[in-house]
Amino acid sequence: MTATHRTYPLDESVDAVIIGTGAGGSPLLWRLAQAGLHVVALEAGRAWSDPSADFATDEVAQSKLYWLDERLSGGDQPTAFGANNSGIGVGGSTLHYGAYVPRADPRDLRLHSLQGVAVDWPLDYADLTRYYQEVETFLGVSGPSPYPWDPARSYPLPPIALNTAAHIMRRGCDTLGIKTSPAPIAALSQPYLATGSEHRHPCVHRGYCHQGCRNGAKASMDVTYLPAAVAAGAEIRPQSFVTGIERDPQGRITAVLYDRNGITERQRCNAVFLCAGAIETPRQLLLWQAADSTLPLNDAVGRNFMAHVSTQVWATFPQPTYLYRGFPSTLITEDLMRPDDADFAGGYLIQSYGILPIMWAEQVARSRPLLGQSLVDYLMQYPHVSGLGINGETLPNADNRVTLSSEKDARGLPKPHITLTLGENEERIHLHADPTLRAILTAAGGADLWISRRTAHTIGTCRMGTHAKNSVVGPYGRSWDIPNLYIADNSVFPTSLAANPALTIMALALRTADHFLQQR
Amino acid sequence: MQSPFIQLLQSDQVSPQTRRILEERIALPGYKPGFFTAEEWPLVEAFSEAVLPQTHPFTNAPCAALIDQALTREEGSGWRYAALPPAPIAYRLALQIIREALTQADAPTIAILLNQIQHKQHDTPTFPISLWLEGFKVDVVRYWLAHPDTMVALDYRGFADDRLTPHDALTEIQVIKQAQR
User: Fold this and answer.
1) ipTM over 0.85 threshold
2) Do the chains contact at A373 and B82, CB–CB below 8 Å?
3) B63-91: per-residue pLDDT in tens?
């Protein structure tokens, strides 16, 4: 970040404190700073000043980008955290996200109206579309124009080059008559300069995108919205872990307390935006209430945790695949969003998977019952494997939730306990996807197929809605319980959508920011 | 004459920070465990070798030492199964169960025991040791694949990206794509 970094005194009641600098907090910080507001972002992790030198091309070393404070994962289908979905550092999880950014399918926002399940989103799709367009332009999303499943849509840059996994998926899908397309990817296929942003270099296809982009081609927040926010006058305080709030007699938050390098600081403020993700956001609210029993919080806080059904199938091919090179996931099909033979609500998209050896081998270790020499022999097949996976709708279930465990972390705070038990609809999506993925890989020439039953992304837990009795925030992210608290991250999603969440998080965050500015 | 791997590692295709990390792994000195006791240590090493033998191909990744190091430093992966106790307790419990199973009168071989554990035959309501084994397998494969010996065995070149240009990578992908036809 080259801009002069403005700072604000702790005793100034700034217009807003933003907790978290991921896909939610960053666009919001920028929008508010652009409007001339005095805004401070608190980020639990550190800032990386020079990714080209700070980031090693090594899977183990780059675990420094993952949120590694321990979470307890329960329910019948415990989901993995850390590398799977949770980041830390200025830029949040976008530092290691796959930057696979399809828009939501409009039908996914109306599951209750159209299919009689779950709930509808409390907004119009058209309202999201303009924000999608804005974010895609700002980030420099590379993708096909027109987009095959939405011909009105175009992307600012041509698609990212396909890697081998994508070519394999395309070959299999072509044989089966499934339409594919290069996916919308938030990484640059060409040099790019967005209005209000800095010049960025194109992707060099090094393949370590989940380990942090070294040249700024991937649109993580640290090279897009955050430098723009700083240039507009925002302050970012790294290594600042929020530990509590103070409120006035009317219940409004007047200050945020946080631990910064072992010292408790207190930033006065007029509003708070909680953007810490679907686990830490409800955890913060529950911690605040644990410290102050008079804090009003409705029962929906922490409930309806969702993670995408993310079944993957892997196969071995005669020729080398070299999955470590190229952008990891570059092909998509949305043909299965509402398949004719569906016996489930919602649907799923399929994406090709390039993958690095350790991330792949960890799935092998969890999913294949191989031990001893047979495990070694199979892992030695890494140069010849390729895979496919889905993002499938997971319906909300109030019993899937984040609570505080009795176990304490290094800060002395209760660790979060998360439960996830998938229902019949998720099982049906999985049972539809499994043979579909196998057929594609077999048609492409793959053998020795195996399945990894996994879940991905963290969604829900502070859902938005139209009534306080069954939601945590209103249609624009404003808390029903605390008048100057807003939430802008994946926790507000009422349903999971099949689309990867990052783009929708950013779009919603800008929408929340605009609403806040209009209300002032 | 240096091996092709060392030549690549020392070339300008590898960033200094990546080279430093890989060289440190090659040069791991004799290791003295900090978490495991003298009694537990040989068992952990044997169990690691049983899960993933390093003879064919020959590799020399100190998986047990790196697991010990992580436990000593209280490093984790950001989550654990709620059904398991914290990692230090889970490891001690698992090793106790394994030791008892291997020293009983009609003891199974370590390979058979591993298989039994994986198939939940030693799970109890309070300690599902099969879930612990899953995590142990994950740790072992991670440290094995992170080691330069294994990269040599796989002819792995992913770490060499420092001077990569879009043209280089696309040429490489084109070659692969043609090979796929």
Assistant:
1) yes
2) no
3) 999 999 999 999 999 999 999 999 999 99
**E strand spans, A168-234:** 181-182
- Tell me how close the Cα of B51 comes to any Cα of chain A, in angstroms: 5
In sequence order, the β-bridge partners of residue A385 are A316
Let me know whether B156 and B139 are in one domain: no
Q: Is the bond preceding residue B57 a cis peptide, omega within 30 degrees?
A: yes
In tens, the pLDDT along B5-20 reads 999 999 999 999 999 9
* Residues of chain A found within 8 Å of residue B177, distances taken between Cβ atoms: 164, 167
Nearest CA distance, B7 vs chain A (angstrom): 17
Residues in chain A: 520
The rounded distance, in Å, linking the Cα atoms of A91 and B43 is: 42
Measure the CA–CA gap between A253 and A50, rounded to whole angstroms: 36
Q: Is residue A193 part of a domain?
A: yes
Distances A253 to A241, A515, B130 between C-alpha atoms, Å? 17, 19, 47
Both B116 and B181 in one domain: the answer is no
Contact between residue A454 and residue A360 where contact means Cβ atoms under 8 Å apart? no
Q: Are residues B84 and B96 in the same domain?
A: yes
- Please state the domain count of chain B: 2
- On chain B, the residues whose CB falls within 8 A of the CB of A71 are 78-80
Interchain pair A319, B115: CB under 8 A: no
Residues A133-182 have pLDDT tens digits of 999 999 999 999 999 999 999 999 999 999 999 999 999 999 999 999 99
Residue A295: inside a domain, yes or no?
yes
Q: How many CB pairs lie under 8 A apart between chains A and B?
A: 196
Residue B154 C-alpha from the chain's centroid: 15
Same domain, B25 and B35: no
B82 and B36 within one domain: yes
Q: Is residue A246 part of a domain?
A: yes
Q: Count how many Cα atoms sit within 13 Å of the Cα of residue A43 in the half-sphere of its side chain.
A: 28
The alpha carbon of residue A409 and the mean position of all alpha carbons in its chain are separated, in whole angstroms, by 24
What domain range is B51 assigned to? 31-146
Beta carbons of A58 and B114 less than 8 Å apart: no
